[in-house]
Amino acid sequence: MKNSILFSIIISLTFLLINCDSKTEEKSVNTKYISEIENWRTNRVNNLISANGWTALAGLFWLENGENTFGSNKENKVIFPKKAPQRMGTFQLENDSVQVKIYPDIDVKCKDSLVSQMGLVADIYGNPTILNHQSLNWNLIKRGEKYGIRLRDTLHENRQNFKGIEYFPIDKNWKLEATFEPYKGGKDMKFKNVLDMEVDQKIEGRLIFNTARKQYALDVLDGGPEDFFVIFADETTGNDTYGGGRYMYSPRPKNGNKTFIDFNKAYTPPCGFTDFATCLLPPSQNRLSISITAGEQYHGHH
User: Residue 103: what pLDDT?
Assistant: First the structure.
């Protein structure tokens, strides 16, 4: 009898120790994951409010063919904020190229060198020409066949008065295994943006994943050497999250076709923070019939 009782106690203690070890390991893993997401959130906010972040945007001006005068005077074709000189120079758009000319005695620099006249490289080529005058800086962008000037102000009120971001609770259950299914040669498609422009994009393939006992798929774009870029909407869109959908990066598979989607890193597009961005909208196939209660929430930022 005593041996039986002793045996039961040993078994119970063994089970308790194993269970405790398991919970300790689980807690350690969860703590590490929570720290990862919190660090991601911190970096995300720091990028938003940086001098070149989206909260510093102060204007977007589409150029017309020929000469486009710019400065703060209302007679210019491109009207900069009042803090800028009244007449600063011209943007000359001809034959798919843009030249800037700065008027004498106006202090405009490119990489610390004074500018009098030069050609501008657009953002789609990866390293745009950036010009600056005091707290203002601007660069050339191209969307479809249109060229525009994107203006930033490092002293913009949106940057200085940024109130932060709201989030769903961190939930590791929204980090899901996914299978990448490539489209042979890619699939060309026109994406609409918030300005109702159509922009050519090449879809690389789709990520297939399961949640709530159902299978879903998201088409993905090139997000760089290490990642896919995902634009999606779900049943929270326009309610708890931004009405124009959300963005997300997902790692490319390293071996085979397996990767993961982490919806805890789903974020609000730049258009949620400024009126001067040109965000792509989710294509119809990336509008999911499920509530993704992870990542960034949105209830207005400006």
Answer: 98
